[in-house]
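Lesson 9: reading folded outputs for more than one chain in a single document. The general rule is that every protein is listed as its sequence immediately followed by its structure tokens, and records are never interleaved. Here is the first one.
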Amino acid sequence: MKPFDANGVFGPNVNDGEVRRLAVRGAGITVFSGGVVLVIQVAATVILARLLTPMDFGVVTMVTTLSLLFVNFGLNGFTEVVLQWENINHSLTSNLFWINVGSGVVLTVVFAAAGSLMARFFHDPLVAHVAVGISATIFLTSLSVLHIALLKRAMRFSVTSANDILSRVFSFAVSIILAWRGWGYWALVAGVIVQPVAQAVGAWFLCPWLPGRPRRVPGTGSMVRFAMNVYGRFTVNYFSRNTDNLLVGWRFGSTSLGFYKKAYDLFALSANQLTAPITNVAVSALSRFDPRSLRYRQHLLSALSVTAFVGMALSAEFALVGKDLIRVLLGAGWEPSGQIFSFFAPGIGATVLYAAHGWIHLSIGRADRWLRWGFVEVVVTCLLFLLALPWGPAGFAVAWSTSLWALMIPAFWYAGKPIDFRIAPFLGAIWRYVAASLLAGFATSAFGRLYPWLFAVPRSAQEAASAIVLISSICAAFYLGAVVLLHWGLAPVRQIGRLMDEMTSLHKFRRPMPAAVPMPSNAGRLRKPLSRDSDKPLVSILIPAFNAEQWIAHTLRSALAQAWERKEIIVVDDGSTDKTLEIARRFEASGVRVVTQSNQGAAAARNMAFSLSRGEYIQWLDADDLLAPDKIARQIESLNGSLDKRVLLSSAFGFFRYRYYRAQFRPTALWEDLSPTEWLIRKLGHNIYMQTATWLVSRELTEAAGPWDTRLLADDDGEYFCRVLLASDIVRFVPESKVYYRAPWVGTLSYVGRSNRKIEAHWRSIQLHIAYVRRLEDSERVRAACLRYLQTCFGYFYPERPDIVKEVEQTANDLGGQLMPLQLPWKYSCVRRVFGWDMAKNLQLLLPKIKWWFVKSWDQALFRLRNRFFPIEL
């Protein structure tokens, strides 16, 4: 890969549309390669544990505990700055390379000279000799840092993973051969040195970039400061992660440290094989999105959910089989490591999750906040280590697990503060997996009480291996069962399955890399997402809600799922007395804005929502209806880029009760492109309508129409959109765009009922309808349509309101016609002749409601039955 073009600009950039695919692919590759590395490392440990003594491991650990701090000088800092910086180029990268290599030389010399001091601290003269050998790894590692970072920036995770695997294979092979030949702890030293050599050779081969000479380039200082913040965070974190090794080695000697280190290695390997590779992928992907956008939060929460699923499963499994695992891997004589590991295991899931708070800091370019949080972390962890000192190595393991769980929630709260990412969605993404892990652990332990031989000790390696397989299978079954139970379905399992499919589909991996896209020249700035949607109109989805606790979550999910990226969602709770407001606020972390007001009616709530909106287009959405995912996108795309603000967009809509997937789409005379006049004539003449959510209205038309009429308790949407039509040039119907309308009753008559206020409001709406259409055209066909409309609506007022009946008849006379006597269906006509109009009208209102209740209940029962066995995400 050639990282820079002829002008020195980084070339292999990734289009925004490819980010998710490459991120998922990268996650799959890195997790797979992490698994391969884990297998290789475990195999090497199994062999080396039988060739070397705990003291050999302890002596080398005393030195690497300190050397790794210097080895990571550029690895943690310059890698992140290359991934995060918006405009990286050849000159800036060359400067970083020489700064890193120069620092590596200095640190190598300093570390080698400090060997005698380390020997005095640990009371072991062997440490001084080992320190000289290990010091070479500091310089050797610095040679490949920038090359590997450039590969990762181009999202070439497959080749970096392959390089890492090969370097480790060479390292372990050298250590095993030399250990077999009797080199003792020097075999481990040689292996540690070989790894960075092999990694550097591979990195330069895969990225054949030659750095230029160092020179003054604007932005170098900013990049170094960013890198130092990251490295400062790493340093603080490093001390919190390695103080235990220092204290164990200092207080209990090299043999105890050897036992402790092997238990810690298994703990750290299990977690780091997930966290380290996924962090690179997550930071690279999240950095491409606006941190306050819905897409950023969706990707973050999705990654957290998957991480929790895997991490908490590992915690439960290893807590139960840890001792047996050590017995199988390390053999006889390492039993103390097994006891220590059993205390580490509950912290594996916490380690995986806790590391994710760093994704937020790095992806939003706030390494300084990450560093500050590191000081909190190191203080808390070290205090727990000091408290654990009297209990020996096992006490340190308990301190580790305790610190991770205690710091997790505060860490995410602090990381999310700059982007208003709150704790509630984080907890919502992970709590079920934590609970499932606890349930699986306790259930498996209870199962073991029935069959005590499962957890019997001591036993042979073969018996331990059999117990591992059996206990792990039982625990996995309990864990998956608990996850399904707590999620009320298989959704998380399906999510993992889909991700695994994307990660392992080789035909997707073989797709060509996107063409290079030059980045604007503006060095020295942190990466901000280069949105290709910035020239597209913002759409405001406005939702009035009153006592809609049963539906509001489904409605909001359909709004959030819109394929049109540039959108804002505003919910106005109109003084609900149920849990509508509480449920709506759970979506605030996803970018939904929720406000509340005293109960004033749907029209007032819509007016409030519009006053808070900023969109160039308005999508009205009732709190119980659903939008198809591409509803808005298809409507805007139908404008073919013209964005004519006087074009009023409509869509198809289907009726449903509970089973939205069985919605019935019944075309009407309004389902085609029409002029405003023709549209109103058809609406009145056929007494048909378009549901509120079908419309997509430009702000220009919305402002021209004026506010919703708060006096109208019935048909307020019909009256409002008449005014929108008056201001528009044409109505464009988009048949591919769809809305799912949860019909409240079987007809308007049931909705208006016998309420005087609703009857009066409905009559006012009818009068306005007629006035609006006659304003556009006062022809014979318009008056005929208005007469048919009056005839249809006559039954709303007769016989309860004779005053309005007279007004209706007078309006008909003004239109040049007269109304026919009201005719009832035969079943109500019989009742009218025997019991009178009141009874007939009451039955006309009551029977449809009874029928509707039975139909609704049946539909609800079928929906719940299907959803129980085949869950559907609404």
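And here is the second record, again sequence then tokens.
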Amino acid sequence: MTVRSNKVIITCAVTGGVHTPSLSDALPYKPADIARQAIDAAHAGAAILHLHARNSEDGSPTGNPEGYAQFLPRIHAETDAVINLPTGASQK
């Protein structure tokens, strides 16, 4: 007999890949907002956080490592979630 498990893994994509603040005023794009929403998601049960860095001036996607450095240390310090960073075309 197969024993079924009801365990799930929750992934949260806090910023989306190509979204901009003009599409939703709820989109976090400032580093402190990205960190806060990611931390809140982890505390609510997300095991994986999929995060994109944003230009803090206009919210456009950026692949600049300095953008990630502004929020990743805080998330690492406050959660044990797996952090998944993009490798896709949405990074400029």
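What the second record shows: The two ends are 51 Å apart (CA to CA).
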